[in-house]
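Quick entry, no commentary yet.
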Amino acid sequence: MNLRLIGIGTGVLIILSLPLAGAIAGPDFSGRDDGKGGGLFSTLGLSGPSGASGPSRTSPAPPAPSAASAGPGRPGPAERPRTDSRCGPELSSPQGVEAQTCVLVGEGQTWGRSYYRNTSGRALEAVLAVMGPAGRTVQIRCAVGEGDEPGLCETPKEESAGAPESYSAVAEFAVPDDEGRLLLRSGSNSPVPGDG
């Protein structure tokens, strides 16, 4: 097994376990392979096939409690809440930015998440926006450090106000000191490269 991939995977898990003031909602990674058989997140074992209009992904269910662990007077393990996601394709820019953006729905709440990797050689800024029904928009800015390590940007969770299909998310990655020069735009409903 490649030690670099193990290190990256371990680093991502550590980052996800830190309570960063609501910026990270838990390790319910899901996404879409880029069709090249080794995309950014599938390399780390964090995603599987899913499309912008295809079936949604669900976080894995916990194992069923055994009779020994859930005896009389002893409750079984708590069930993890179901989280569904609708993700666009993995996109990359010639400047070295890769991203995939998703809308997530769980427990009556909706939020946006963008997974990224920045090998551009400079720090960037991401703006992630989730657009919902009746003109509702939630937006957040995230600092995107340079390096080969994957990261994520996530909006706060908001009470859902419509069907999951009525929400979309868009992340824009730009150079903050270059008049906001846009390097990559990634959306939850972006077309797959090469389609149409």
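second:
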Amino acid sequence: MKTLVIGTGGREHALAVGLAADPGVSEVHAAPGNPGIGQVATLHEVDPMDGAAVASLAVGLGVDLVVIGPEAPLVAGVADAVRAVGIAVFGPSRAAAQLEGSKAFSKDVMAAAGVPTARSRVCVGPDEAAAALDELGSPYVVKDDALAAGKGVVVTTSRAEALAHAATCDRVVIEEFLEGPEVSLFAVCDGRTARALQPAQDFKRIFDGGLGANTGGMGAYSPLPWAPPDLADAVLTSVVQPTLDEMNRRGTPFVGTLYVGLALTVHGPRVIEFNCRFGDPDIQPVLALLSSPLGALLKAAADGDLGAVPAPTFTGGAAVTVVMASAGYPQSSSNGDVIVGTETLDKEVDVDVIHAGTVRTSAGLVTAGGRVLAVRAIGSDVADARAKAYEGIATISYPGAQWRRDIAAEPLGVVEGASLVSAESSDEVAPSAAGPITRLDQERR
């Protein structure tokens, strides 16, 4: 099987590595990719947002499967363009991708499907927003209805800040705050049925202890020793299957990854958000532990026949991913800083480097801004994997590099985000002495 991965980031690098490890995959191509992806795939200079160009490349390469990584091409309908030329695509249509493209649409689907989620109001204008904030109370959760490149969600105890964010959006969804540890669950869907991958948890704030601004994710780990053992099956039954049924009822079957962001509340799991693709970095440790063939799983989903392949299986132990970001991230980004030390980890067995924002120039490997790379490690348990990941981090350097020192420390007793700093200070959270991560930052994108 020949495959083509669309995208440039860490998620796409992890997917390319997983596909290259599948004995049933003969070729891995990527467009446009990055230097890390180029180590396991053939790169092609094609705009991932140009559906016609992606479809033409897929035909020219004679690939059997296209895997679209990021949300923007999916919401733009790139999967539709590829399907139109008769090539299987792992990724939803433009219509189905509205589960992420519009939070109001997502909430409407959840309501129709009976999916447990936060109470919410869709608001246009300051008066509607103010009334919804008063109704649903603090902490305030304000989400831009549309994709917003990681800047669409504010969770805060400040009413003024919540109103200010609402004023910058054409339409917002205001929700009640859900209290409880947050879990990422990825469901591979073929339009009718789904298979769950192993749950993960990521760390979104830029600073240790869950402080500072929201980011795209500063690290993740899997599995979750503290999570209920039947969590994945329960979410498939109560969330994923009803959602697939409702999407089919609307004539927009969902094929691809349904990311379910969950809060494990005292009343049971509640959905924070749906995304229409794998999360980054939280998919990275999950794929590191996947022992069954990735290509076969994604192709069966794209073909509408998940029953043709066995359920996904995972190795024992644990995996931890720690992200290194550029100077100034997330408020700004530094580019062109020379990266040293990745070559050493490329030779390791249980540790690898996942590229997200890197380019290769005459000066060598340099940063391209934002989240630059991640060190991913496999160990006998979370503590062992965490130790290996941080040993790997210590071998890499570039000017202004920043990373959190407490990724996956939670199972060892260091906990993120258990209480508010103050009623009116900000949307930051402070560490607590016990329990898993408590959500104050509901979304990372």
